[in-house]
Each structure stands twice: as C-alpha cells, then as structure tokens.
Write a structure and sequence with these properties.
By secondary structure, the chain is an alpha+beta fold. It contains eleven helices and nine strands.
C-alpha cells in the first residue's frame, strides 16, 4: 500500500511525537500478505511503521493491536525489543490499524542468505555467541512478569497442555489430504504425558533466527526480538523447543554450511544451549523431550498446511518431505525417550 504522508504527518503532530514541523521521510522496507514495514524519519523520530496491506483480512488489524500490546509491555524489561513509539487504530489515518516502533540499528539473519556477516563468518568462536544470544532472548522473555505488565487475557494458560493435541489434531483434520506416518504415535504419547512443571509465561510463538535482529560487530549481541504475530501467554519452554527442534545433533560438520538461511556449523550443541537457557531463565529442562516432541508434532502440522496449498510454489512444495521427517522424528523420540510423566 502507499503511505499517505500528509495524513500520517497530521497524526504525528496530533500525537505529540518528535519532529513537528520537520519533513517526513519514509521508505518501504519489507512486507508480505500479512504486514508491511516502512522506515520513517522526522526530526528526532526514527521508527519502523508496521501496517497490514490493504488486501489483508480484517483480523490483521486485531493482530496489530495484539503485537502492539506485547511490544508496549516489554518496554522497561531487559528483553531485547523494539521501542514502543505510537499506535493508531483509526482507519481514517492510513486505512488500517498501525503502530510505530523504534528502528533497530542491526542486521537480520534472514537478509544474509546463509552467510554470517564478519566476524561471525570466519571467527567460529565469535559465531557461537549468536546462538547463545538467541537462547538468552527467550530465557529473558520467560522471566517477564506478564500479569504485572498488563498481559492478562492475552492467552489462555489454564489448560494449555491439555488443549494441544486436540487443537492440532482438529487443525490437521480440516486440511488433511494424506496420511502422516507417526502422527498417532506422537499424539498418543503427548496425551499420556505432561511436563514436570508448567510455569506460564510470555512466549513468542515462532522463535528462531528468522525473527531476531543482532547488533553490528562482535561480540554477538541480540538487538531485538521481532515479529510478534504469534505472541501469547502460554509455556515459554515451547519457544525453546521450537528453536531447537531442527538443531543438528552434531554441529561440527562443515556440511551444515549452505543448508538453510542460518549456518549452524560450529555452533554450540543442543545440550550447551539447554544449559544456558536453564541458567538464565531459572527453569529446569529435564522434561525437554516433552517439548521437543510437541514442537515437532506441531511444526509438521503447520507446514502441512503450506504444503497442501503449494500449487506451483516450489518453496511450499519443499515442505512435503520436511513434514514427514518432523512427524517421524516426533514419533521416534516418543518411542525412545526415557522421559515419562
């Protein structure tokens, strides 16, 4: 969509944000079917405007308000985040609900096409810091006092684990066009088991290298967790499992380079990242296999939806074997794990 500069300028003036009387500069940064992001500058104001495109469903406006609620709640915490600058739910301004967050001076792993910027590409010790920082981000997020931050009602933590299998089974039934071997085994195990403890907390919902930004240069420093579309109050350890569900068991193989958008060669092992999470978050990880089975089970079903809608889209077509692999891994782990509850 095209930003109406005059209307946005008037709204900025009425809201009392910095830059009154200065010209407004803006540029398109990125976007898709759900959201578009524009960099805006006006005097001392330097922000990123996030808005649904004109053709996005009406539910995206509610999603924008949900994201804003989380970003605003993170202000004043030690979680790396974008600053909350302003929100507008009046469609008379730009046609859709939008918010402005602080512009992050950093880089996204998604923009690097699988090659880390220096010094992380050549300095393998420095590279490890990227993963430790990624892990630390959700460890800090899990410690946020979500009730004190006004996030009551953001999610439904009561019965969170009791709902998971039924929820994702129903989702799969609506899109199902083929069998997913291992589904019954993983589902039965998840129905029969629960975590050691469940401490509700704020979770991102799609936590991975794709949804964070780092500061320039070494040592590695997480600048902000971004893209809160799936944010909710639930079980933060599911974020950890989501992040690690496809983490290689052996990170010492140079063959990992060139596979995917994040080069995991020479990164810390899964066990090292689990230990770091436990240390920073104060949460135990002895029941991590439960979360890993749930994450693999869930991601298989989520990606199956994309695969069923693939058509001629090569990227979505590639989800087909990934789905089968993830569900098999969930079932295999369910049959081999020593964890039972």
């Amino acid at each position: 969509m095209t930003i109406d500069v005059d209307r946005l300028t008037r709204w900025l003036d009425e809201t009392g944000l910095p830059g009154r009387g200065e010209p407004l500069e803006h540029r398109y940064v990125s976007g898709g079917t759900q959201n578009e992001i524009y960099e805006i500058r006006r005097g001392d104001l330097h922000g990123a405007l996030r808005i649904p495109p004109a053709g996005a469903p009406a539910s995206r406006d509610a999603g924008i308000l949900r994201e804003w609620r989380i970003i605003e709640a993170l202000d004043g915490t030690d979680v790396p985040h974008t600053a909350a600058i302003g929100m507008c739910d009046d469609p008379a301004v730009l046609g859709r609900t939008f918010y402005i967050m602080g512009f992050v001076d950093g880089w996204s792993p998604m923009d690097k096409r699988g090659v880390w910027p220096e010094p992380f590409n050549s300095d393998l010790e420095a590279r490890k810091g990227l993963s430790y920082q990624l892990t630390e981000g959700i460890a800090l997020l899990s410690k946020v006092d979500w009730k004190a931050r006004g996030l009551e009602g953001l999610g439904r933590p009561d019965g969170f684990h009791e709902r998971q299998v039924d929820r994702w089974t129903s989702f799969l039934e609506r899109i199902k066009k083929r069998e997913l071997p291992g589904f019954d085994t993983a589902a039965a195990w998840l129905r029969a088991n629960r975590p050691i403890d469940f401490v509700p907390g704020l979770m991102h919902g799609d936590y991975q290298f794709a949804n964070v930004m780092f500061r320039h240069g070494a040592p590695a420093a997480l600048a902000a967790i971004v893209d809160w579309e799936m944010g909710t109050v639930g079980d933060p350890k599911l974020d950890l499992a989501w992040m690690l569900q496809s983490w290689p068991e052996d990170t010492s193989s140079p063959e990992l380079t060139g596979k995917g958008y994040a080069d995991l060669y020479a990164m810390p092992t899964k066990s090292q990242l689990l230990a770091h999470y436990a240390e920073v978050s104060g949460r135990q990880v002895d029941d991590f296999d439960y979360y890993l089975i749930l994450a693999k089970f869930k991601i298989a079903i989520v990606l199956e939806q994309g695969y069923q809608r693939a058509g001629d889209d090569v990227k979505l077509q590639s989800f087909g074997p990934v789905v089968l692999g993830a569900m098999k891994e969930a079932a295999d782990l369910a049959e081999s794990t020593d964890y039972k509850s």
